[in-house]
């Protein structure tokens, strides 16, 4: 009896250690990727822009009896700011970093559905990620109908809600709800939370939020996404 209890305790401790180790590895991996992306962004800036960043963050080229070389000063500035700062400055200086932002968004999307066990939900998520609209549109309904028709070709039970302002999800496949936004602005993101509270009560298979043509500051979007994932961990967000 005592031996069994001891074995059970050891197993429990082992699982806790393993879980903790995985978390540490995940944090280290994220830090490495963030640092790499920060350096890639900063390398696209000229020295004048680096000096502006340095000045605004109290990082000086001249100190007590020394003057850093441009290369050393650039390295010092890069080491003192984080990835979000680098992204904000890149937007401010109108530097194209769409490839790096796309990497970050795809990674966040993948992390958002690692624990999904529902095979139908997994398949629908995969299909939505594969889907590409024919064009960029200035209204949500066109994105909704185009995605709905694409999904209907794979799942005949797909229903498209075309009534504007409806309290029902935009697309329904069985007990899975899909909410579509596009073009997506800050005000659109702010309406998602109430739907995350309501829809899962009636659609037990899951809720997928699909965001087309997101026109929101990256930092705001990242904070919004983290908030949604923390408050509604079962809701899947796909940024197109």
Question: Which short descriptors sum up this protein?
Answer:
240 residues, alpha/beta, 2 domains, 5-stranded mixed beta sheet, two-stranded antiparallel ribbon, elongated
Structure explained in plain terms:
This protein is 58% helix and 10% strand. Helix 1 packs parallel to helix 4 (83-92). It has 2 domains: 2-92, no CATH class; 98-239, no CATH class. The longest helix is centred in the first third of the chain and has 41 residues, at 2-42. The N and C termini lie far apart (56 Å). A hairpin with a 2-residue loop joins strand 1 and strand 2. The chain is an alpha/beta fold.
Lay out the secondary structure:
Elements: H1 2-42, H2 47-56, E1 62-63, E2 66-67, H3 70-80, H4 83-92, H5 98-111, H6 119-130, H7 140-152, E3 159-160, E4 171-173, E5 176-181, H8 186-189, H9 192-202, E6 206-211, H10 218-231, E7 236-239
Parallel strand pairs: 5-6, 6-7
Antiparallel strand pairs: 1-2, 3-4, 4-5
Helix pairs in contact: 1-4, 2-3
